Amino acid sequence: MRRSVLCALSCAVPSAAPPVASAAPPTPGEAARAPFAARHRAEPHGGIDRAADTSAKGTGTVDDKAAIGCADVDDDPNAYDSRRAERRVPAGSLIAWARLRRGGNPRVGGRGGRTLVAAYGKESEPLRRLRVRDGFETVGPRSGELRAALDGHRCPKGTRGRLGVIAHDGDRRTSGDYPEVRTGLRETTGTGDSANSANDVLNSGIIEFGRAGTTRSPAAGNTLGYDSDVFDLRGALRNGADRVHVRLGSREDTVRPGAPFPQADVRR
């Protein structure tokens, strides 16, 4: 079946008592960490795309100090948490694989978000190497950093590519975040763009190449602790690569990476 819409995320949570702030430890079934593992590997004519939204609304610029509540965009009086997101893939594409990633801390004012990552095929697009990994770890000044091997293949000079990153608890205007791409033994390139400065990359936004990357409601620019970003890798791959590894950490903030998903053109 051919589709022109990648996804239409929508969610409504029945009304009861909305979540309130709590310092309680994780309840049974909640994971404090989950090792990163490969979820999808393919080499089609096509690519990876995503739609994302946030469950939080509130005031303030730093999510730890903001007054946060649940987003509610529908007219149903029996639901306190509802939101929508949509992202279109190229017309004529075939969705080959998809995975919905949810995360955050809904017990603290509804803070969190969702990203639907999808791999699609389209014969007229370049041949690309696609990878999706996910897990849940804590990184920061006291927790070390995440290092993940994304692709062990060589990339020639001038390869085009992109890197998606999902993460939680990245505060806006708290510097020190450093998602970096390592393409060889000594060559490391920081990610960043016009909306994600090189020193504050995980800054509570849903961004693609420096711009809003998903049609969503609510559409506030500050997602209060949830990041679902896509970065251009042409700079990191301009000299080619022996491999593609990602390092993610923070010198000031504590953040929780959830999923990296890269793609790179294949030349034959």
Topology:
Blueprint (H helix, E strand, L loop, with lengths): L2 E12 L19 E9 L3 E9 L1 E4 L7 E4 L8 E27 L5 E11 L6 E9 L9 E6 L9 E8 L11 E3 L5 E3 L15 E3 L2 E2 L2 E3 L8 E7 L11 E5 L7 E10 L3
Parallel strand pairs: 13-16
Antiparallel strand pairs: 1-6, 2-8, 3-7, 4-5, 6-7, 6-15, 8-18, 9-17, 10-16, 10-18, 11-12, 11-17, 13-14
Question: What does this protein structure show overall?
Answer:
There is one protein chain. The protein has 268 residues and is mainly β. It has no helices and 18 strands. The strands form four sheets. The chain has a seven-stranded mixed sheet, with no helix packed on it. Strands 1, 3, 6, 7 and 15 form a five-stranded antiparallel sheet that branches. Strand 11 (180-182) and strand 12 (188-190) form a beta hairpin.
